[in-house]
User: Fold these one by one.
Assistant:
Number 1:
Amino acid sequence: MLTAFRNIKEEKMTLIRFRASPEQDVDLSRTYDAVVVGSGAAGGMAAHVLTSQGMQVLLLEAGKKIPIEQELRSMQWPYDHPRRGDAPPGYHAIRINEYNIRKPPYAKGSAFKHVFSYVGGWGGADYVKNILVDEKDHPFTGTKYAWVRARLLGGKTNIWGRLALRLSDYDFKGKTHDGYGEDWPISYADIEPYYDKVDLYLGISGHKENLPHLPDSLFQRPNKLTASEVKLRKSLATMGRTLTPYRAGVTTDGVKNKYRSKCFGRGACDRRPGGCDIHAAFDSPTGLIYPAMDTGNLTLRTNSIAHEVLVDPNTGKARGVSFVDSVNHKTYEAKAKVVIVAASTLESARLLLLSKSRQHPNGIGNSSGHVGHNFCEHVMGPGVTGLVKDMVGAPPTLDDGKAGGFYVPRFRNLQDKQPGFIRGYGFEGSSGFSLFPRSAWDTPGFGGQFKKSVREHAGAFISMGGFGEVLARYENYMDLDPEVKDSWGIPVLRFHYEFSDNEKKMCEDMATAGKEMFEAAGVEVVGVDKNIRTEGWSIHELGTARMGNDPKTSVLNQFQQSHDVKNLFVVDGSSHVSASCQNPTWTIMALAWRSCEHLADEFKRGNL
Amino acid sequence: MKISRRKMIQAAAATAAAVSLPALAKAPSPNPKPLFFTPAEFALVDEMSDMIIPTDQQSAGARAAGVATFIDARLAESFEKDQPERWRAGIKAVEALSREMHGKTFMASTPEQRLALLTRIAAAESDPKGDVEKFFKEIKSGTIRAYYTSKIGIHDDQQYKGNVIQPGDYAGYDAT
C-alpha cells in the first residue's frame, strides 16, 4: 500500500503532460507547400522535416484524434478494469482459424457489432478498441491476410512493438550478395547519417554489439536481461551468435521533447498490444507531430480519408488530394505544390491505384505497372519455449519492467550458404516473471499441487519466435477490387499473395535452429511451434511501390520520388525494395528524413 | 480486501437480523445475487473453482479472489449465446455425474466425493470428450484467467514485482 502511494506521488512529480499547440484552422482555399497523407511513422517524419525547413504543410489523417492516454491506461491493474481488459460484449477479434479457413472480407455477415484483427484478441482488447479499425467498415478481398490497421492520429505507432533495428548492406545490396531480387538504390553509407538523426531525435535504447549485419544505433541505456537470458547469451556467444537486449524505440535517458517522458521501467509493457501512455516509447504524435505543430508551419486535419491524388490536366503533375470527411461523408480538395503519400504500405498503394487520370491511366506513378507488386513482409510463427531448470522455485523478480525482452540477430546466409533457402531471420524473445503466469494454461491438473507448480515455474520459462524475410516477388501483389467498397464508397484492396517455398523452408529451419540453441544452453525444450502464422501476422508489410534506378521496374527513385511525377513522393514502407528480416520502422523514418531533406532542397530551388 | 469485505458483511448482517448471520457465514461467496447463474449453479462454480485453486500457505484461493463472481458477470453479458449455454450444459452434466457416482448433487456430496468427481473429469484434460470433461477445461481456464488477474492472484500468490516505477537503475542483469 505504501509502495503504491509513493509511486503515484512520483508520477505526479515527473510525468507532466503538455498539450499540443492549438490546431491551426484548415484553409482549403489556399495552396499549401506540401500535403502529407498519413500521420504514422512516415507521415509524422515528413511533417517534422518539412516544417523544420520552413515549408507550410497540411497533414491529412484518415482516422480520428483521440485522448490516447485514456485509451491505453498503461499503468492500470487488471483487477481495476471491470472486464480485466476485455472489450465490451459484441466486440470480436478474428482468430487464427478464421483467417485460415475463411476468405476475406472476414467481417462479412458477422453477427458481432465490431470485428477487429487478431491483435484485438491479445490480452487487453478494451485498450485498443478505438485504435484498431473495425473490419466491418474496412473490408478487403482476395487471398487470406491478417491485415492489422490503426486509423487514428499516429496510426500504428500508437501500439507498435517498439523493436527498432537498422538494416545493413546485407539488405540494401542483397542481390549483389546472393543474386536474388533487386539491390536498393542506396547503400548503408547513404542512410547511416539519417539513422543517427532518428536515434538522437527520438531516442533508442540498446547495447552495442558491432555486428556488420545489424549496425549499432546511437544507444541510450539498454534494457537489462534476466538471468535466463544471460545464460543463453553466453551460450550463443560460443556459437558465434548473439543475444542482445531488445533494441527499443524507447527513450530511457530522455530526449528534448516536452511531450515525452523517459522510460521509468514501470513494467508490464507486454501485457497488451503495445502503447505507452507516458510516451517513452516513440509514437508519431508526441515524437514528431506535436513538435512540428509548435513550429507554426503544420496544419492538421483528421477524419480525412484521401482517395485520390489530383492531377493538373496540363502538366500531369500532382496538384493536391481529394478526401472524404469520415464523419460527414462530404468530399473536399486539398491543394498543394507537393504531394507526399505516407498512408502505410498497403493504403499508399491503394491510393496510387485509385488515382487514375488521363495522364496516369493505371494510377498515378504507375507507368511501370509495379504499384501494388513486389509486396514483401516478415514470415513468423515458428518458435521455441524452454524451461530453465535452475530458475524453478526462484523468488519473484522484476523481469518485465522494459519495452521488450531480447533479440537474436540473423545468423543464416551471412558467411554460410544454407541449402534450403536464401536470406535470414532473427528471433524476438522474452523470459522470466510477467504480470500473468502464462504457463498456468499448460500446467495440468488442479488443486494445491497445480497452484504450487504455477508459482514455482512462473519465472522459469524462456521463449522466442522467428521473424524471417519474405522474398519480394512480382507475383505477390494487391490491386483494387472491381466491386467491393468500404463504408465511404472507396474501392478496397484485393490480395494476391502467398508464401513461397523459400519462406516455408526458412520456417522449418527457425524451429530446428531455435531448438538447437536452447539445448546447447542447457535449456530444456518444452515446446516447439512449427506452424506458420497467416500472411500479414508480423504487421511488417513492405514493398508495393519500390524504389529503384530503372523507371521501368520501379516506382520511386532513391529519394522516394515518383519516376513519373516529380512532385509526388511516397515515403513509407511501400518504397522498400526488400523486407530484410529486421523490423522496418526505424528504416522507414530514416529514409523519410533523407527524402524530405532532399525534397525541401529541391522545393527551394524551384525544381518541383 | 478479503477481510474487510467479510467484516462488512458481518457488520451488515449483525445490524439487519440475527437469524440471517448463520446463513451468511455458511454462504460460499459474498455474492447473494448472481447475474447469470442460479444460486445453486453459482455455489457449484464457486466451490469447484476453489478446488482448482485452493487456499494454501502462500495465498487465499479462488473463492476469496471472487472468481465465480467474475465468471458470472462475464457470462451474464456474453454476446455469444453459445458460451453461457456451454456452462449451463456443463453444470448439468456435472450434476448428472454426481448423482451417478454418489446419488446426490455435487454440493450435497462430501468433500471426498467432490474430489473424486473432479479427479475423474480432470483425468481427460488433454483430450476431453463430452460435456462434463469439456466443462472441466472451461471452468479451469475461467478460474486461471480470473484468479491470476485478481489482487490475490497477482500480489499475494505471484508476488508480482512489476508495474512500479524504477527511478534509478533498471532491475536485471547487464549484457556483458
Note: Chain A touches chain B through 65 residues (CB under 8 Å).
Number 2:
Amino acid sequence: METAHDIEALTSGAMASIWSWVETKIPAGVEVFDAHAHIGVDIDGRTMTADGMRDRMEAAGVKKSIVFPLNDPNARDDYSGPNDVVWSAYEEHPSSFVPFFRLNPHLGYDKEFGRCVERGFMGLKLHPVSQKFELDDPKVVRLFGMAAEIDLPVLIHAGFAMQRIVEPLLPTVEAHPGLRLILGHSAMVEVLSAARAFEGHPNVLFETSVVQLKDLYELCSSIDPSRICYGSDIPYGDLPSTLHAILAAAEAAGVPDGALPGILSENIRRWFP
Amino acid sequence: MKAGERADAALRTAHLLRIDSYMDIAILAMWTASPRTDPMLGMVEASLRGGSPGGKDDELIEKLRALVREGREYLASGDFSVAMGRMRVAHDLLSLHIIRSSDR
C-alpha cells in the first residue's frame, strides 16, 4: 500500500535538487499530460490504485494521464475484468484519466473490443512481451486495422525486452496512415531506426516513459519534438524521475524551450483534448 | 607520475564509463528482480569511491553517491519505485555528463 511518505520520498533527499530543476524547466501554464500509466495489479506483484495514481499526479502537478491495465493475474481471456477496473477509475475521475483497454491478441478479442469501444474507452493498449506476440502476427495486424477503421488510438509496448519493432510494424503503419499509434518507451532499442522509419508518418508518436536519457538524447536529436510525448509508466516509473529524463535529454539535445509544452502536454492532448 | 594524478579526457571518460557499466548492471538487476541486486548496487557504490581522475568530475560523483546510497536504502526497505527513481536519475546524470564532455 502506497503512503504519503512514499510519494514525498520521490522528491526529497538526494532528489530535492533534481525536482527543483524539473520544476523550473516546466513552462508556466503547461498542464502536464502523462501518456503512459497503469491502474490495477500485475503478475509481478506491482499494483496501482486510482487514488494512488491521483495522489502522485497531484504531488507532481500532472493534470491528466492515459491509464490502462497491468499484466493482470486475474485477467480473464478477454481482459474484461482489468478493463472494468480502469473504467471505474475513469468514471470516478473523468477529468484526470484517459482510459485505454487492453487485449490479448492470441484469444478471441472481437467481443471485448466491441464492448470497450461501445463503452467509451479512448484507446487500446497492446503488450507484445507480456502477451507473447510479434507485431506482424496476422491477429495483431487485424487488430491494428480494426482500430484504424474507427480512429481508435493504440499504444504498444515498444520498450524493455522488445527484439523486433520497426520491421514488423512499418507495413501496418504504411497500410493505415491514419492509424494513431503511440510507441511506448520510444521504441528504445531501435530508437534511431524508428525515428528514420516513422518520420514521415505524423500519426506515430514516441512516448518517453522509463527510457534512459541517452536513448532520449538520440530521440530528441533525431526527430521533430512535435512527435514526442511524455510518459511515466507508473508504477514502474515515477513522475519526477521520468520528467527529469526527458527535460534533461531535450535540453542537452538542443530542443528549444518553446517545444517543451508540446512534449509535456500538447502533442498528446491534440488526440485527447 | 603518482597514482591518480593523470586527468586527461580519455582517462576521465574511461572512469565514467566504468561507473556507467556498473549502473547498467545494477538497474537491470532491479528490473529483473535478480537475487543479486543488492550486491550489484554495492558494486556501483564501490565504483564511486575515491573520486575521479584529478578530481575533475568529483562534483558529479558526489551527487551520484547520494542518489545511489538512498536508492539502495529504499530498495532494502521494499520501496522499489523510489529506489528505481534514484537509480535512473543517477544513471541519467552520468550519461548527460559523458555526452556533454564528449562535445568539449
Note: The domain at 9-102 of chain B is CATH 1.20.120 (Four Helix Bundle (Hemerythrin (Met), subunit A)).
